[in-house]
Amino acid sequence: ICIPEIHSRAMAENIFNNSSSTRNSGSEEICYRYQAFPCLRVMKPGEFSIGPHCDMAYGHSIGNINFHIPLTPTFGTNALYTETHPGREDWHPLTAKSRGLGYIFDGARCLHFSLENTTERTRVSLDFRIAIYRKSGRRPNLINESNFLTRNYHEEAAIEENDVDDVLCSERALEDNYSTVPGYYDEFLLDVGASARRRSQFSSHGSVLRKNNGRVVGGLLAPDKRVGFPF
Question: What would the DSSP string read from start to end of 156-216?
Answer without folding.
Answer: -SPPPS--TT--SBPTTTT--TTTTSTTTEEEEEEEE-TTGGG-SS----SSEEEE-TTSP
